Every structure is written in C-alpha cells, then in structure tokens.
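Structural prep section.
Before we set up the soaks we want a predicted structure of the protein with acetamide in place, mainly to decide which crystallisation condition to try first. Input record follows.
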Amino acid sequence: MKRLLPLLLFALYGATLRAAVPEPLLLPRPAAVETGRGTFRMTRKTPFVAEDAAQAALVRSFAVVALGYAPEVTVAVPRSSAVRFATDPSLADEGYRLEVTPGGIAVAASSERGFLYALQTLGQLLPDARAAEWRVPAVRIADAPRFAYRGLMLDVARYFIPKEHVLKIIDAIAALKINTLHLHLSDDNGWRVEIRRYPRLTEVGAWRVDRPGVPFPARRNALQWEEATVGGYYTQDDIREIVAYAAARRIDVIPEIDIPAHSNAALAAYPCLACPVVDKYIGVLPGLGGDNARIIFCAGNDAVYEFLQNVLDEVMALFPSRRIHLGGDEADKYYWALCPRCRERMRAEGMTDPEQLQGYFMKRLAAYVRRRGREVCGWDELTRAELPEEAIVYGWQGRGDLALRAARQGHRFVMTPAQVCYLIRYQGPQWFEPETYFGNNTLRGLFDYDPVGADWDPAWRDLLLGVQASLWTEFCSSPEEVDYLLFPRTAALAEIGWSQPDRKRWPEFLGALDRYVGRLAGAGIVAARSMYNIQHTVRPLDGRLEVRLACERPDVEIRFTTDGSEPAARSAAYRGPVVVDRATTLRCATFRRGERMGEVLTLAIGWNKATARPVEGLGPQGALLVNGVRGQRNSDFEWCGRTGGELTATVDLLREEELRRCTLGTIANPGMGIYLPREVLVELSSDGEHFVGAARWEAPADSLFADWRGVRDVVLDLGGAAARWVRVRARSAGVAPPTAPRPGREAQLCCDEIAIE
Ligand code: ACM
Ligand code: ZN
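Run finished without errors. Recording the tokens verbatim:
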C-alpha cells in the first residue's frame, strides 16, 4: 500500500488535469473522447505512414478532401514522428480510432469510410489550416455512427441547383460525415437529367415559364404559347462528375425519378404517356399547378412502363448507387378513375381500388430495378398498397409514422419527417424569414429529434437505416437561398445521424457549429443566423398581457426597450416574462459580449376593450384574438384558423361598455388555400345568454376567391350600443373554385385579433 499510494495520488492528479482539458468541439460529436496532455506539432511535411500502397493512395486522396492538402504518404517507417494508419478489423463499419499524443498520431479503422472520417475529425482538431505549424491537442477518440444512413435530399427539380453548387454542398456535408445524397431529379416543375433516348425530357421538360416575384404556390400555370425560360439540367457528363466527386468523399448519390405523380415535366415532353382522358394542355408547371397536378403517368398503357424502364436503364448506368428512389408520393388518382386503359388494367388484374393500381405500378417498375441488382426506395405512400419486394420506405408525412407500417411488414426504412426534417419549413421566428411553407422546423427541433420512438418494437430499430434532412426548393431561386435553408440545420441532421442520444449536448453542439459555420464561410457558403432571433409569445394573464421572449441559443442575452428605442447592449436584460397593461412597443434583440447577434424584434402591442379579456369558443387558441399582437404570416403563431364552416368567438368585456366599432383581423393567402371570410356577424349580449345581431359585413362576391394576398381588417360599426359580451361569427369563403391554386378544397379562414373600441 505504501508503494501504491504515490501512484494513486499521481493517477488522481492526472485525472484532475485531464478533466481540466476541455473536450475539443467536434461535429458530429464522437462516441468517446478522452483528452490528454500536451500537443503534437504537425506541419504539412509531417509524414503519413500507411500499411501498403493501396492504403497509401486512399489516405492521400482522403487527406486532400479532409485536410485540404496532399501529405507525403509512405509505407516505410520514418525516423520522425508521423501520422500512422492501421487496419483494425475489430472496429465497426465507418468507425475509427484516433489517438493524438505528443509523439505522433495513430489512426485505425476497418473500412474506407472509417479512415476518411478519422481524417475529417483530425481536420477539425487543426486550429487553422493556413498556419505553418499546427498544435494538435492530445486526445483519444473512439468513434462510430449511430445510423448507417445519414442523408441529405436536394430537390433539384423545383429549383435547378447548378452543378458547381451541388459540388460545394457535397464538400460541406462530407465534413459532417453525411454519407448519402438523395437527388430528387424529376417533378412537375422540371426534369433535370439528360436521357439520351428521350431528348425531349430535357429539351421540353427542363424548362418552365417565368412568374417573377410570385411565390411558388400562387403561380399561374403556363399557357401553351408562353415561352419557357427558367430551368436547366445536368448532362450525363455532369452527373458522372457529381457522382465521382461524391464518391471521392464516400457519399452515395441516390437518384430519384418520381413516379407515377409529380410528372408534369416528363408528360409535357411526352403527353402520350398521360391517360388519354386528359383533355388539357400539359406544360411544365411553374408552381403547384392546381388541377394539373392530377395529371400523372397512365398506369394502363404498357408504353409507359417501357418508357420508364428505358429511362431507368440510363439512370442506373449513370448512378452506381445500390439504391434507386422511385418516389411514389402524392398521386391523385382522378384521371386513373376515368381512364379506360387504367380501368381495363384494374379489371384485368382484379383490382377494385385505384390505390391497388398504384401498388401494381410501383411493384412492376420496382421489380425491373431489382432484376438489375438494385434496391428500390420510395416515399411512405407506398404503404397504402402492397409494398414492392424489399422496398426501403422513406417516412415523411407528419412525424413519419407511416414508415412504421412498412417496418411491421419487415421493410427497412429511413426517417425524414416533414415536421422535423423538411428544411423548406421556417427555421426561426417567422417575421425574419423569407416566405415559405407551413410551420417551423428549427435547428433545435432537429437537434432534439430522436427517430427511434420509446414505444418501438426493437425489430423496428433494426430496420431503421437512419435519418435524412430533405430540402424541397419551391421557394428557392438562387444558390444562396439554398444555402440559407441547408445551413446550419444540416449540421443538426449530421449530429442526430451520427451521435448517440446520450452524447448530444446543445451548448457543445453550438460551439462546434460555430466553427463549422466559420469554415463554411471560408468556402463561400453563408449560413442562416435565425438561431439568434427571438420568438415571442404574448398571452393574457389576469387582465394583463404576459410577454415571453425566447432564443434557441443559451449563450446570448436578450435585451429590450419599451420606449420605442433600438435595443442596445446596455438596455434592460430580459430575465423573465414582461407584464404589460397598456399599449406598448417592446423592442428586443440578442447580444453577446456587447455585440448584437440577431434581428431586432419589434412587438407593437395594441390595447383596446377586448385586450386580455376572456374568450370563449376556441379553446386556448382564442387567447390569440385578444393578445394585442397582430400576425404577419398565416403560420406565425398569431392566428386562429379553421377550415370551412364558421369561426365563432365570444369576448367577455367583464363590464357593460359603450361600443363603437369591432375590427376582425383576417388574412388571405390563396396559394395556401387561405381566404378572407364570406361574412362576418357581430352579436351583443348583456347577460351572456341572449345575443342580438348588431352588425354584419359581407365580402363583395367578386372578391371572395380573388388572387390577392395580405392582411385585411374587417371593420364593423356598432353605433355606440351597450353590451358586456361580444360574439364575432366569421363564415369561411367556401370551396375554392377550379381556377384556384388548391381547387376543390374548403377555404381556410384565419383571424389574428378582435379589437373592440
Ligand atoms: C413529399 O414530401 N411529397 C415526399
Ligand atoms: Zn390511364
């Protein structure tokens, strides 16, 4: 014991020292990191030592990718310290061990990707690629990914992303150890890959009419004689270049040819492949397409299968990926139900439901792909019919639960749920974001996502290949807009794809992210700063309003003013909810070390007789109507919505008041199926039971489904009547006409505020 004591003390001392060295900030965070003491001094001249010539060539090419230079790689044992590579078959696929000591660096892996990822990690340990000598901190890293599939989908159909920019994105995701790039190559809005046998696919299908300044969902379809000027496509050489560039970074490129729907671009080129009952002009759609989105490949025409097989032959020749994605999403069967050929096919195959016809269609083409030794992928709509053999299902609807239907049948699946992983959604407080679809998918939301449900059958876990972030590009029209949506959120995808849940730490992730974002900037990619912006919630509380402010980043402080002035580093610090009892302009922003980090949020909080009063009829949502804050976007959390019918809210003013005017805030956004009300009624009561009509407003008939977007106040004169309760009844516009962007759908009615004066 006597002899052991000094050793023990030394070990404890060492442990204390070790704990004092912070873990390096790495993205994604490795499985295990143990910091050591000292540094390894490394220069571009430091030799790399491989086991044999083949490994030497591999290491050299990976170093160029991961470190940005070609080191001298030898198979001889050098005299000086070095970076040594060794194969260790006991390590997991894609896993690696990286050990830095003052005497050198040792790298071990069992697979090519393992060696690449070790070098990517080493690249993150180097402080500055331009310095003559780097001090690499002593560290021992044992790492392996949580999921085998870590993917990014780029929709190059809605917006044609130029090849050079795709290559830039490949570099950016390679640094994150993302191993799959899913290219959505065809849709209603464009066909993006040269097919030699069918030149019209790109001569016609790659080009659409321009609708400058009009957001995607509101764009009118093309007329037959309009010139199509927007688009582009990848030549076969371009595709080979993209595939080779990705392969050098060990990224698998999965091509998607979306069938049978999302096919207007292909059908514009070859209209004979649509159902013969389609009696309208088929053009490449500039937007949603309205009724034209129902035009899909005819499932009863054998020429369609032959055509698609020929297309897939060329696609498979271009893309060596084991996996080929056949889409299968959102197929409206309107024409199939009318088409004599489709009906005959259903009769011949003993089918009663057009969903079964899609099952037949997908299975037939999937079998063709499988016979050529490839695996078939498809969106989760495949689960609506019999699944193609061995198909890999991509769960996207809602939180991806339809993919579990596939898992129950023993199918492998990938999770890319729209409500988390769709990068088209808003990434931060919406008032600061460029217009897009739907709700928020923030950086934090993606970071917190665990695709494995706590209640899952363990077998499903084994069938889950991994996760994917998917970027639909309806709202993109430049590479910069693509970057803005991709970054930084793609880094959070990498983290959830790679790191074990118990290794994820939000502050550490942000620290590593900041370095990554800095390196992206060096490569000419500007990431969004939405994570620095402030999300407000304003709620009535005991007759006053409680204002809560939140920022995703914990390493900033929120400062605010209430006198209308610009918030500054010395403005009041936000420490908890701010209570407001009169009209107030609250302005706030985030700061770090005296520097403003995000946008200035200006909350113009109004005050009237209804403000902060109880509202009945809409549940907790009703509070939004009396919170003094006006909405700007229909999805910005300030709106009460309902689809069809009538929206009814009753405000209790808590005492009898003389009433001059009632204003109802509404919004129209035809592209999203949101329209102004058809009619608004105001009824008054002094006892809360008997209500009498006091005012009525009716929309002019020709304005109901007008092609107009914006916020609109409906003002009703109450003529000085006295009442305590005010009931507002707003009737929805009804069913959208055939010419609307979303025809045949019940209009959605959205209201943000009831003001009573
Ligand atoms: C999809 O978002 N329609 C796959
Ligand atoms: Zn048909």
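Observations: Residues 1-18 have pLDDT under 50 and may be disordered.
Flagged for discussion at group meeting.
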